[in-house]
């Protein structure tokens, strides 16, 4: 169940706006985590890297699949969750909390506002 | 029918059990697309086939004493290699996708990967590529992936056949190949250091190089790393019995041809491309990789790992398109290296060097023969200059029962009178003497 | 079982090289030498033989039992081919021999093998010229795409995409991408074959070509195959045939007649050369007339005097894609196989392969879902969806087959079928073996209904049980150094 206040991409990333700041936190939905199976590796981008909305910024690997993660907004990576590599179980345990992947300083908050809501994302999963 | 198990009776029975006729089985192919007649030879018996192929085998001049090298060598293959590798549990098995049934193949490949690392002084190796040439191409692509650049520096002392292959593969790609001309038998250090810049992805060198000369690339590695450039070294595994390893030179990716490790020359293949690299680049390495793990009862076991880099999962984003590799040849190399062991490999390498040195002395003592790269250290190959066309001389020596060497004019300009001679532990003092005698007589 | 390094005893010797018979000893200068010896195991010959013998007993080959891996064609490997490949006249032949002056005359036997194979494959596929250089199927695919690129370059066409079906083997898109093309995926329709309308809408002036296997990876023959090739040709695109499934049609139909311009064959599949635990293979590529100029060099030709020679002078050739003439040892084995089957035998292969596959299809269709229930060719694809509802997945079925002494079929491929089980028996399997397999599959299906938990812990009869693949990837240990 995706927390109501989050936004989602069709490609199963979630995005959260941090308070009133221009920072967007990004992670993977529990659906994606389940599909991937045992996650074994995460190739994080570097802090300072620029990303573009809907282009790949990171790769995640499980035993049977490798997926690219797509940025929900354009901007600059300001923080990466380095402890994730040592604690892959967090993806299953706390996908919307401790398993956040990166924080992006958004260039244009309107991009975030235009993202699909959590509710719509879950609806299209069923459909 | 040979190898087809079911009798006509059984086929009839099976068809009736499923309610279909033989025609029904092919009814899905539009009739216009079926072919009635294939102009093929009539069936041969096993006896007939053996006789015919024995005749063909007899038409190949393997009786000539072999002084040919160029990356492929006439080394001694111990008998136990054949016995082990012809075990059908090894050679009739498929890729070990079901690990519980394939621990033999998997452990053997893990051991092979380990041996390649130990031999080359590197941290990680894959389960094999097709041959030394495609391995070098894959290494190049891997370096470009890692650095995100598109320029390569390659010296012409690297095997010319491999260089032609690399040119062929990169025709449709946006990759710049800068070729440097070797300087007096060694890679052109000066030019390479001059060309190194932040657009370069990798420098490709070979040791010993195509002319047999030995070098140390540590200085080049250092200079390259300062600019974020990787060093790729193609090497000759037998020579690593004694020579400085690419790992000790701080090479980033090591490749080579493993044919000299117990694999017959077999007129062009199958061969063995090996690749090794630093731990930090493992995920960018192409090919299959075997890893160690445990089972549900905590016993040690082996599986294919990091498969998500490969084509069957990553498809168009895979590190390479390679699927079938040279698994059986990798096994052969493992067996060979295990039979020779630490001392045996070292001794074989020393024998090659000693016999080549003896041949060099003997041949260059002929007044008309000059060493091309005087003063350069060489392993088991060297180049001599003759007063006339080398290809003609080699042609005449064939009549004396010798495959005396390789005419370099085939791949190098201004080397019409030069020939490359290789000497392995199989060449005897007598054979070397015969070569010298015959050569002197012709010149 | 211990690693070979763990069995090492310092000072123990195995095979000893012959002592030097030359007076020279060379001391290469220290700076060029390795600092420490290569740490290879020190063992006696018996130690080594026992180690690898033990390893072989932990393996499973076609010679062990039924190996119905779909898409792999695990047929019997004739021993006569092994014997011939070992003839010193072939095994000891240095590849540079023909490049010496008059060198071709030194290798007439080998060149004849290459030439004759060329002729036989032309007849089998209907193509106009072959290259024996590609060292594996995927390598053949890359070669074929490079030929496509050369053709378009030569004609000044601006082409950027290759069309590939969603059911394709992963090497297809990988090969196209590596050759510099963008991959466009064409969906399959409800019958499991390429959606013709979708194809028509996706083909445009950017289309360099199409890669297709027929029958496809579901074992289904596309009745519109000729039309598909025509559509590609209409934009001057080239149609590439992935010959991995040739066992279904060999001796019955020719890819050239379907309209294909390029074909690759897998000698280690259709032509019975051994799989070797993952290789070596060989993937010769055939082309139609209009692409002959682009074939890699060298090519074996027959001169007027009946001798064979290597031809290099082909200005439009894509160059060398292998160091020499291909995996000669593998080509030789395939040649022997074709000679032993001959005209009479070659036409029976597909008949029996297709019969065996349909026999399995009909006998198991009551127990396992058949996503595409019609006639199949040499392989059939089931889905374990029904069993999955009880918690028994394709992987559990596969592992349970292992305990019954069979190698499992291919699982989870093609990806367009959920819980896929792809079964390819081949023509070298007997009715009794297949009946045994069918009985086991039925037992498994019944157990999945009544006692699904019994299937979750298999295999139990092997040296290791299910292995922790996640841990293998996370805690990477890929060498003992």
Q: Percent of residues of chain C in beta strands?
A: 5-15%
- Name the helix and strand elements of chain A from N-terminus to C-terminus, one letter apiece: EEEHEEEEEHEHEH
Number of strands of chain C: 12
Q: Strand pairing plus helix content of chain A: what structural class?
A: alpha+beta
Q: Rg of chain C to the nearest angstrom?
A: 25 Å
| SS summary, helix count of chain C | 14
Give an overview of the whole structure.
The complex is a heterotrimer of chains A (127), B (443) and C (481). Chain A has 127 residues and is of the alpha+beta class. Chain A has helices spanning 30-36, 90-93, 109-113, 118-126; strands at residues 7-8, 13-17, 23-28, 39-43, 50-51, 56-62, 66-70, 75-80, 102-106, 116-117. Chain A has a 7-stranded antiparallel sheet. In chain A, strands 4-6-7 form a 3-stranded antiparallel sheet, with no helix packed on it. In chain B, β5 (200-207), α10 and β6 form a beta-alpha-beta unit. Chain C has 481 residues and is an alpha/beta fold. Chain C starts with 44 loop residues before the first helix and ends in a 7-residue tail after the last helix. Classes of the chains: A alpha+beta (127), B alpha/beta (443), C alpha/beta (481). Chains B and C meet through α1, α2, α3, α4 and α5 of B and α1, α2, α3, α4 and α5 of C.
Brief characterization of the structure:
Chain A has 127 residues and is an alpha+beta fold.
Write the layout of secondary structure elements.
The complex is a heterotrimer of chains A (127), B (443) and C (481).
Chain A: E1 7-8, E2 13-17, E3 23-28, H1 30-36, E4 39-43, E5 50-51, E6 56-62, E7 66-70, E8 75-80, H2 90-93, E9 102-106, H3 109-113, E10 116-117, H4 118-126
Antiparallel strand pairs in A: 1-2, 1-10, 2-3, 3-9, 4-6, 5-8, 6-7, 8-9
Chain B: H1 8-18, H2 22-25, H3 46-58, E1 65-66, H4 79-85, H5 88-91, H6 103-120, E2 124-125, H7 132-147, E3 151-155, H8 160-170, E4 176-180, H9 189-195, E5 200-207, H10 218-226, E6 230-235, E7 253-257, E8 273-277, E9 289-294, E10 300-305, H11 311-314, H12 327-364, E11 370-371, E12 381-385, H13 390-398, E13 402-403, E14 406-407, E15 418-422, H14 429-442
Parallel strand pairs in B: 1-13, 3-4, 3-5, 5-6, 6-7
Antiparallel strand pairs in B: 2-8, 7-8, 9-10, 11-12, 12-15, 14-15
Helix pairs in contact in B: 4-12, 6-12, 7-8, 12-14
Chain C: H1 45-56, H2 79-85, H3 88-91, H4 108-125, E1 129-131, H5 137-155, E2 161-165, H6 171-178, E3 182-186, H7 196-202, E4 207-212, H8 225-233, E5 238-242, H9 255-258, E6 262-264, E7 285-287, E8 299-302, E9 308-311, H10 328-364, E10 380-383, H11 385-388, H12 394-403, E11 410-411, E12 420-423, H13 431-450, H14 469-474
Parallel strand pairs in C: 2-3, 2-4, 4-5, 5-6
Antiparallel strand pairs in C: 1-7, 6-7, 8-9, 10-12, 11-12
